[in-house]
Model the fold of this input.
Amino acid sequence: MNPKQHRRSFSHVSKNRIHHRRKPRTRLPTALELKDAGVKVVIGSRDLAQGEQAVARLRAAGADADVLHFDITKPADHKAAYDYFNSRYGRLDILVNNAGIAAGAFPGNGPEHSVSGVAPDLLHKIFETNFFAQVALTRALLPLLKKKSGGPHRQSL
Done:
């Protein structure tokens, strides 16, 4: 059983944001909502061509958007994302960290939808991508998230 890979996106401006996605168009409404708040959207995509298509749709809708080649499961990509945001903006204001993978069709019935029917190696891969890689990325970007953005409110990280 091959898990369906999901990757989301990133973004910045005076509010920077990173956002991953399942498919390039699944999270575009979030990015479009943020454009109205003056947020520059930076799409992080494993498939650069799909990321570029998403950016083209965002730009056509009036968003300020870019794409960054990115895979949540690769620590080197976490560092590259840190370097990207640090060198261009000096901080990251918003992180939408929602990359993920799944197996099977949802909603659905069958052995792939119960813990007893999923192979242990697939469970490890799903948890590695959907939880541990998310935590690792957040930790890697935390120094940029903690920098003062000058916004009216900050949450404790």
The CA atoms of residues 24 and 54 lie 5 Å apart. The longest helix spans residues 120-146. Strands lie at 4-6, 8-13, 16-20, 39-45, 65-69, 94-96, 100-102. Confidence is low (pLDDT under 50) at residues 1-25.
